[in-house]
Amino acid sequence: MTGEPTLVVEGLKTHFFTEAGVVKSVDGVDLAVNRGEILGLVGESGSGKSVTGFSILGLIDPPGRIVGGSVRLNGEELTTASPKRLRSLRGDRIAMIFQDPMMTLNPVLKIETQMVETLQAHVKIGRAEARARARDALGRVGIPSPEERLDSYPHQFSGGMRQRVAIAIALLHGPDLIIADEPTTALDVTIQAQILSEVQTLCRETGTALIWITHDLAIISGLADRVAVMYAGKIVETGRIAEVVATPRHPYTHGLIGSVPSRNRRGERLTQIPGMTPSFLALPPGCAFAPRCPRADEKCLAMPELAPCPGGGHLARCFHPVPEGAAS
Amino acid sequence: MTAAPLPRDAHGAPPVISVRGIDMVFLKKAPGLADKAAEMLGIPRPAPVGVHALDHVDLDVFKGEVVGLVGESGCGKSTLGRVIAGILDPTAGTLRFHGREFSEMTPEERYRAKVAVQMIFQDPFASLNPRKRVAEIIGEAPVVHGIVPKGEIDDYVDEIMLKCGIDPAYKQRFPHQFSGGQRQRIGIARALAVKPQFLVCDESVAALDVSIQAQVINLFMDLRRDFDLTYLFISHDLGVVEHIADRVVIMYLGRVVETAPTEQLFANPRHPYTQALLANMPRISTEKQAFGQIKGEIPSPMHPPSGCHFNPRCPHAFARCPAERPRLIESAPGVAAACHLLEEAV
Q1: Is B285's CB within 8 Å of A189's CB?
Q2: Could you tell me how far CA B278 lies from the centroid of its own chain?
Q3: 3 state DSSP class of A188
Q4: Cα–Cα distance measured from residue A188 to residue A194, given in angstroms and rounded to the nearest whole number
C-alpha cells in the first residue's frame, strides 16, 4: 500500500435509463479515501449520494448502469471486475452498512448463523472458531454479553443494537473500506452518539477507510476528516471538514450550513435556500444550482469545474464562490 | 383532590391548554368478558399488562407561546400530543382549554374547543388522502364545521394556500403531484383552514431535507405571527426546538424530567438526562465532537426501571435513585426538574 489511497473514484458516472429519460444520478464523481480516514458524503434526497455508494460496490441494477469512470480499491479496478471477483470482495474487503439494519439481517436466522455464514463465505474456518470471532466482533461494537446475544434473533434486539450487529458483521473480515449509508438516521440522539463514538474509535484502531453518507452536515462536522458535498449528481465542494464548515465557498454549501437551525439566532428567520432540488429529468443547463443561487449570472449557464478557490485550499464547483469570511 | 390554582400569564389569562396528572396506559390486551364480570362482582384479577406511555404528566401552554416537547423514542411525546389534540382519551387526568375542563363544557363548547386544537403530522405522505384534490383536502373541514359558507370556500382555500406558500393554481392537483415540502405545506394549510388557536406539530419537519426544513420552520414562525397561534412543537431534534421554542419540556419514558425557558435550558441543563442529550447533539462546528458519553440503551417502556427511570444510565445515580421516584420540583415559575441530586443539593 504505497502512495495510492485505499479507494480512488475517478469520473464515475452512473445513469439510469428509464422510459421517461436518462437519469444521471451520478455524473462525474471523483473521490479518494485514505487508510483510517473518514470521508463524509453529504447531500439532500436525490443528490446521488447513495447511488455513488452503491456504484462503488457494483450494486447497480438495470435500468441503471455505470457508464463511465473508474473505481479502484487498493489499485484494483472494480468497474470492469467480474461478478465473481466483486462477490468475493464484498463482505471481505468492502462492506456496506445500510440505514435500516433489517436490510442486512435475515429476520428468521439467529445472529450467530448469519455471522458464521459471512465468515465462512470468505475464509475456511471451523464453526467453533467462527463463533468465537463473531462473539469478539459483537463485543467490539459494544453489545453487552455477546456470547448469549449470538443466539438471539434480530427482532429481539432494539434498533440501536441491530445497527451495532450490522456494523459488527461489516467489521468481521477487517475490511479496507466501509460504506455507511445514513446508518444512524433512524436512531435516537444518545444511541446515535454511542455508535458514532464507536465507529470513530474502530476506524482509528483498524485503519479501515470509511465513507459516511448522510444528509446531516452536523454529524459529519463532528465525525469526519474530509467532506464531499453532492448536488444533482455532482460534487460541488470538497475539502477538509474544518475548512469547509468554517469557510464554505459554494453557495449551496453556504446555504445548507446557514439553514441549520442552531446556526441561526433564536426566533429569527432561518436563512433559506429558495426553491427545491431539481428533478434529474429536468436539470437546468450548466450549473444545476444556478436557478436557486443568489450569486448566479449568465456565466452559470455553463458547468464550472471542481477547482481550488482563489485564496482557499479546498475545491468548489463554482464561477462565483462565496468570499471567505462571508456571514452564513 | 385539592387542585392547585392554574398559573396565569402576564395578562392574567389561564393557559390555552393545561393538562394535569395525565396517565395513559395502553393495555397489551383489551379487557375481556371475564375481566368485566370479575370487576362487577368485585373479584380481584391480576393487574392487566400494559405500557405506561404517560405517567402523571402536567403541562401548561400559554397563549402565543411555542412549547418544544423533546424526547427519544418511547418517551410518550407523541402520545401527549395526541391526548392534547383530542385524538386519544387519557386513562386518567384532566385536560383544560382556557382554564375550563372539557367535562364541564356544554357539547357545543366542547365541539368548538376541539376544532380550535389542530394537529400537523410527521409524514406528509401518509397524512393526506391520496384520492382527494388539494382543494377538497383543505376546503372540506371549514365547510363541515360551518366556519366558511360553501359559496365562499373557493376564495378561502386560495387565501389559505397563499398564506402557506402553495400556488392556488395547483388546487386541483392530487397530493402525489407535490414534493415532500409542498405536501407538508398542504398539511399545514388543512390544519389552518378551521381557524385553530392551538397547533400540535408532531415531528412536522423531521422528514424534510435541511433546506426545505428551513423553509417550513420559517412558515411556522410567520403563521404564528399572522394568525396569533400557540404551538406545542414535538421533536427529537434539539436544534430545531432550540430555534423555534420559547420553552422546552424534556420527557423520558413517560415522565417530564425537566422544563425551562429555552435559553436557560440550553445554557444550564439541570437534569443529567438533559445534559446527556445536549452533549450528544450533533452540532456544526470546526472541531471534532466527543460523542457517546452516555451509556446503555433506552429501557423498554413496558418495563421501566424503578424509581427514577433514568437511573441505570445516569452517571450520578446513587442509592435513592432506584428506590424513589423524584418529584418534579419547580425552582421558579416555569422552571422545574425531577432529580434527587437537585433536592439533595438544596
Answers
A1: no
A2: 20
A3: coil
A4: 10
H helix intervals, chain B: 33-41, 77-84, 107-116, 134-144, 153-163, 180-192, 210-227, 238-244, 262-267, 272-280, 320-323, 340-345
Nearest to B309 by CA among B267, B272, B263: B272
- Shortest distance, CA B181 to any CA of chain A (angstroms): 9
Supply the pLDDT for residue B36. Answer: 79
- CA–CA gap between residue B99 and residue B20 (Å, rounded): 11
N-to-C CA span, chain B = 28
Bridge partners of A235? A230
**Cα angle vertex A100, ends B68, A170, to 5°?**
125
Q: Do A264 and B280 touch (CB under 8 A)?
A: no
- What would the grid cell of residue B258 be? 425537566
Pick the closest to residue B187 from B204, B173, B209, B171 (CA basis). Answer: B204
Burial of A128 (C-beta count, 10 Å sphere; 0-12/13-18/19+): exposed
DSSP H or E segment with residue B19? strand B17-27
Count the residues in chain B: 346
Residue B163 at interface with chain A, using a CB cutoff of 8 Å: no
B243 with A270: Cβ contact below 8 A: yes
Nearest by CB to B242, from A257, A261, A272: name it. A261
Least confident span in A52-56, B1-5, B54-58, B338-342:
B1-5
Q: Is A219 near chain B, with CB under 8 Å?
A: yes
Q: Which residue of B has its CA nearest to A268?
A: B243
Per-residue confidence (pLDDT) for residue B9, from 0 to 100: 82
How far apart, in whole angstroms, are the C-alpha atoms of residue A170 and residue B182? 38
For cell 469512470, name the residue: A69
Go through the domains of chain B in sequence order and give each one's CATH number: 17-245 (3.40.50.300), 258-281+305-346 (no CATH)
**Contact criterion met (CB < 8 Å) for A269 and B221:** yes
Paired with B54 in beta bridges are B24
pTM of the predicted model over 0.90? no
Do B284 and A158 make contact, defined as CB atoms within 8 angstroms? no
Using CA atoms, how far residue B2 sits from B5, B6, B19, in Å, is 9, 12, 15
* Chain A interface includes B239 (CB < 8 A): yes
Is B331 within 8 Å of chain A by CB? no
A282 reaches B (C-beta below 8 A): no
Distances in Å between the Cα of A41 and the Cα atoms of A32, A115, A180, A212 are 11, 28, 10, 6
Q: What are phi and psi of B162, to 5 degrees?
A: -60, -45
In 3D space, the residue among B121, B218, B179 whose CA is nearest the CA of residue A278 turns out to be B179
- Using alpha carbons, select from B294, B281, B295 the residue that is nearest to residue B235: B281
Burial class of B43 by CB neighbour count within 10 A (0 to 12, 13 to 18, 19+): exposed
| A278: confidence class by pLDDT, cuts 50, 70, 90 | confident
The alpha-carbon gap from B36 to the nearest alpha carbon of chain A, in Å, equals 33
What number of other Cβ atoms are within 10 A of residue A213's Cβ? 26
Furthest-apart CA pair in chain A: how many Å? 67
Whether pLDDT at B346 is above 70: no
Instruction: Please check whether residue A45 touches B, CB under 8 A.
Output: yes
DSSP reduced 3-state for B330: strand
Other beta carbons less than 10 A from residue B124's beta carbon: 24
- Residue A316 in grid coordinates: 468548489
Among B180, B211, B239, the residue with its CB nearest the CB of A261 is B239
Q: What is the ipTM of this complex?
A: 0.78
